[in-house]
Amino acid sequence: MNIYKDERFLKEVKELSEKLNIPENVILNAHRGYYKFIKEKLEELPLKEDLTDESLDSMVKSINVSSLGKFFIDIDKYKRKKEIYKQYLNNVKAKED
């Protein structure tokens, strides 16, 4: 779903624009910028590397999004996902052979 085409969302943007006397495109750009920042911060995390408990503990590994809650990474989930990913890669390689 593209939220920027959703009628309810665009209606809210229009109402906010009128209430605050701010152009709609400024509100849309601020909204896009907020989620772009979150996406970039999550993509910066070096999760493709094999991290130790200490290296993961030294990283900032959570982002709080007021409307969605807190996104975070803990070492146990990281290790489980990493193992699942390795198994997936092994299965793909086995099928190629």
Helix/strand/pairing category: mainly alpha
Mean of residue pLDDT?
Answer: 85
- Count of individual beta strands: 2
Instruction: Give a short account of the largest sheet.
Output: 2 strands, antiparallel
What would the principal axes of the Cα set say about the shape? elongated
Number of contiguous helices: 4
Radius of gyration: 20 Å
Query: Reading side by side through the largest sheet, how are the strands ordered?
Result: 1-2
- Indicate the proportion of strand residues: 5-15%
The separation of the N and C termini measures 38 Å
Task: Detail the poorly predicted runs.
Answer: none
Strand and helix order: HHHEEH
What level of helicity do the residues show? 55-70%
Quaternary structure state of the chains depicted: single chain
Please give a quick description of this structure.
The chain has 97 residues and is mainly alpha-helical.
Outline the structure in words.
This protein is mainly α and 97 residues long. It contains four helices and two strands; from the N terminus they run H-H-H-E-E-H. Strands 1-2 form a two-stranded antiparallel ribbon. A hairpin with a 3-residue loop joins strand 1 and strand 2. The radius of gyration is 20 Å and the shape is elongated. The two termini are 38 Å apart. The model has no long low-confidence stretch (mean pLDDT 85).
